Amino acid sequence: MRLQINLSPDWFLDVEMRAYPQNEPVDFCIVGTGAGGGVLAQRLARKGFSVVCLEAGKWMDSERDMVSDEAGARPLYWNDLRITGGDEPLQLGANNSGKTVGGSTVHYAAFCPRLHPSDFMVRSLDGVADDWPIRYEDLEPYYEAMEREYPVAGPAYFPWGKPHSYPYAPLQSGTAGHALIRGCVELGIPVVPGGPIGITAGTFGKRPHCIFRGFCLQGCKVGSKHSTLVSHIPDAIDHGAEIRAECMAYEIPLDSDGRVTGVRYFRTMDEGKYEEAEQKARHVVVAGYAIETPRLLLNSRSGSFPDGLANSSGLVGKRLMAQAGQVVWGRFPTMIRQYKAPPACAETEEFYETDPRNDFVRGYALQSVSPLPIAMAHLLTEESEPFGWNLRHLMEEYNHYAAIGVLGELLPDERNYVSVAPETDQYDIPVAYAHFNLFENDLKLIRAGVQRAKDVLEAAGAVETHYVNRYAHLVGTCRMGDDPRTSVVDQFCRSWDVPNLWICDGSVMVTQGSANPAITISAIAARTADYIATMARSGDL
Amino acid sequence: MSQRAGDDPLANPTLVQATKKRPVERPIVAYPGFHVLDQQEHWDEATRQVIMTRINQVPAFRFFKPHEIQTLQALAARVLPQDDRPAEKRIPIAPWIDQRCYLRLLDGWRFDDMPPDDEAWRLGLLGIDEVAIASYGQQFILLRPDEQDHVLRTIAGGQPPGEVWRNLPPRRFWIYIVLRQMTSIYYAHPTAWDEIGFGGPAYPRGYFALNHGYPEPWEVREVRLDETSD
User: Fold this and answer.
1) pTM here?
2) By CB atoms within 10 Å of each CB, which of A118, A439, A524, B69 scores lowest?
3) Which of B50, B109, B112 to mutate: most A Cβ within 10 Å?
4) Which residue of A63, A68, A320 is the best one to mutate when testing the B interface, meaning the one whose CB has the most B CBs within 10 A?
C-alpha cells in the first residue's frame, strides 16, 4: 500500500509499503511500535524476516496531525478506559501512555540515560529486588548503537554509571534548565547540561535541528526529537516491514502443540467502525508497554493457560513498577518563561547509587522538567487545591516558576500489579486494572529526593518551593529471568512457556534504576533481534 | 549580561510573598498589549485550526439539564472567576464540560472508587446543592459568592453532608473532576495565555530568547500590579 506521511518539514515519506496477506503466516507479528516494537521491527526486517506490526493508534503526520498546543496533543495519548487503584493510584493517561505509530516515544521528553552497572545486580549489592539475568556489559554495545541511531546528544564525558561519551553535542538549555544547573553548581553537585537527550542540535538526515519551541511532550512537529516514528520505523518499512495502524490486538490464539498462531485484532475501517481480523504468524512479539502487554496476555486464556497466556509462573502483570516522578517547583523573583526550550535539558545522577549514609537503598536522579500552562495548573491544584482568585494569582506567576523532576527508583513488589477489570472498552475487551502502592524504601527515597530538589531550587534563587507526587515510566509486568518459575521470559525476551512467543518492551525489566527507560527498552530489543538472527541461522529458532 | 539572579535587570524587586492572605479580586500581573493571537501568521495551519476552533466553535449544551447547567456555570464562576472581563471576553468553561460528558471523553484512566466522569459530574452537581441546602437552606445558585465558596471548601474538606457523597468520594471529585477539568479548559485558551504571558504556539518560528527569562521581540515584559494593590 502507498504510505504518504510528513515526518518533518523536510521529510515527506512517500513509499510503497508491503501489505502481507492475513492468512499466510509472516515470520513475526509484533504488537506495538514504540521503543521496543519499533526497533525490533526494524532489526528483524533488516535481517530478512517478514514482519507485520499491529499498532492500536494512528499514523501522526507531523504537519497535519501534530500541533503546537497542549490540549491539542490529546490524540497522541491512550485515552481509552483503564482503572487505577491502590494506595497511590497511577494517573495512566497522557505521559504514561501512547497510542500512535511510534508509541509513547512520540511524546516522551526524550531523556535517554543508560542504566548503571549496579542496576543489573541490586539483589547482590543491596539485598533488594532481584538481579537481572544479564549484566550492563550485555547491553553496552546496544546502548552505543541506539545512541547513534536515535541519536542522543550529551556531554563528551558523562561521569555516572560506567562513564562514557555521547556522539552528538549537548543541546542548549533554557532558563528553567539553568535553574537546575545553577542550583547544583551552587551546592557543588556535578550536573550535565544539554543531555543525554534524543534531540540533536544539528540537522540529522531529514530531521532538522531543534527550534526550542518547548512542545516535546506534544509530539515534535520539527522531527528533531527522537521517536521510533522518525528513527526506526521508516527504515523498517524500507526493509519490507508492514506497519498496520489502527489495529487493536485482543487475543493471541494457541494451537494444540502449545504454539501461538498469530494475533486476533480489531481493525478500524472508517471512523468508529471496525472489523475483526487475524494475522497468522510463526512468531508473535508483544510490545505493548507494561499495561497493555499483560492485558493482552491475561485476556488470551485457553485450556493450557487458564490464567492467561505464558503465565505458568503467575507473574504476568505482577511487579508493576513506576519511577518516582515528583515534580518540585520553585517560584523565582526573576523571569523564567519555562515554556521555551525542550523540557529535558539537564540532569544530575549524583544521587543515583546506594549511599550508606541514607536510610534507604538505591537512589534518584534530578532532571529538568518544564510544565506548560495546563500541566502547571494541574500541579498547583493538586498541591494546595486553590480556587477562585487564589488559583488565578498562582497561575499568573507561571513565568516565575522553574521545576525539577525527581526520577527515583521504586522497588518491584508483587502487591503492585496489572490485572483485568470487569469493565470493557469500546471494543468490548476487558480493560486493565493497575494497582499501585508505595512501600517503606520508596517513601524514604522520595522524601530525600524531594528535599534535594528543593535545596537545589533554593540554591538557584527560588523564594518558595512546592511539590506534587507523580509517577512515570511504567515497566516490569513480565519480568525476564533465569528461572521459568520466577520469571515470564528469558534473557532474550522469549516466553518460557510458549517457544514462539516473545515480549519485547519495558515489561521485561527486572528493576528500573533511575534512568528513563526508552533507550534501555530499545537496547534490549536490538539484542533480542541479534539473538533471533543467530538462532535462525543455526536452525534453532 | 550576568546570569546571576540578583543582577538580572528584568527581575522585579518588589515581588510580594505568595497569596496566603485573602486575595485581591483582580489580576496581580499584566503583560500590557500582549495578544498571542496577533502571532497567528507565524503558526502552522494545523495548530491555528485547533485553536481557532476552540475559540469560535463553543459547543451547545447537550448533556446537562437546565438546572445542572446553572449550577455548573455558578461553580465555574467560583473556581475561575472572570469578573474582571466583559462577558463576551470570558473563557467558556461549562460548555466544554458538557461536551466532554456528552461524548464520554476520557483521559485514559478512572479511579477504582469513582463512577464514570459523566456520572460523577451529574452526582457532584447534585451533591453541591445538597451541601448548599444543608448549610444555608438554599440551592447553590441562590447563594452569595462567599457562601458558595464555603460550600466548595466543605466538599474539599472531604466530609460534606448529603446522600450523594456516600457514593462519590468528595476530594476526588473536587481535585480530579472539578479543578483538573476546569483548569484544563481555561488554560487551553489564548485569553488565559495573554493573562499569564505564555508565548503559545511556536512552530515553525521557534523561540530564540532562551536565557535569563528574556522575552522574544514580539513578547511583552511583565508588569506587576500587586505592590500597589492593597
Assistant:
1) 0.96
2) A439
3) B109
4) A68
